[in-house]
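Weekly modeling sync, notes
Attendees: AB, CL, MP (scribe)

Item 1: holo prediction request
CL wants a bound-state model with pyrrole-2-carboxylate before deciding which constructs to order. AB pointed out that an apo prediction alone won't tell us much about the pocket. Agreed to run with the ligand included and paste results into these notes for async review.

Input as submitted:
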Amino acid sequence: MTPISPQRIRVIDSHTGGEPTRVIVAGAAEPHGATMAAKRESFAREFDWLRTASVCEPRGHDAVVGAMLCEPAADDCVAGVIFFNNVGCLNGCLHGTMGVAVTLAHLGKIGGGIHRIDTPTGVVTVEVGDGGSVTVRNVPSYRSRIAADVHVDGYGWVFGDVAWGGNWFFLTEAPDGLVIAQDRIGELTEFCWALRQALAADGITGDDGSEIDHIEVFGPPTDPGLADSKNFVLCPGKAYDRSPCGTGTSAKLACLYADREIEVGACWRQAGILDSVFEGRIEVCVENDEAVIPVVTGSAFITAEAELLIDPTTPFAFGIPNLTK
Ligand code: PYC
């Protein structure tokens, strides 16, 4: 269903702790469906050209997360949003939700106070504060498997937890000698990619056989005065998260709570690979103490307002699809 006439797509770009978000604010048709999950299916089926045209090269790059604003399915929401990246649609995305929040504020669509945003994983709330700060109340997050072991070629046995924080994560400590640092990104990427493939080969999944498509590796913070931990997160299309990853921080909070290493209300400062920090808290426990509601605060900044020009008669008009599997 690629269009045959030229398209003008209005976008607003931002970054959250260094991780880019491109919000589609006008020019695209509404995805169909009565629920946000159905709208995401419709987007994946009918608008894949828009995904590749907007986030893949030559207009974007592998790290860009796209956010399609649409009508919400749930009541009282200011917007619905479908997140996507270089290889497909995401379940949830909190750095992206922070980007959407500052974008809505930039457009004058939201002011102070708490606002509800509908997503395929459920309703989240956002509150925009001063200096780019955004607080997101996430969907229920939980650990589904403790201390899973998997043999990873070239690395040996790796132990970690499987948790849901709006995406499926495998959370583990960095292997001996592999420091979470910017000059080790190549090695960290190789490790996470090998780990992800080993999980798939061993049939280690999230609930209902869902693929674990985010790998989160932890190490000590650069400055213990500023953060409690530092992570490296590899996203589904082999790009690493420049931010501390909000759904990953939520998964970490769920694991910390499952181990009774954090109390409700206490602050967890999660640094990412660039040392930008998300502050996470558990607001409340739900589902008989089996899940928690994480609240994550970060900062997002508008970087561009633009119109993407898509002329179907030109080379790579709909982007260069990333075929990483
Ligand atoms: O912040 O949740 C997040 C996220 C997911 C993928 C990239 N960022």
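Recorded for review: The longest strand covers residues 291-310.
Action items: CL to compare against the apo run; MP to circulate these notes.
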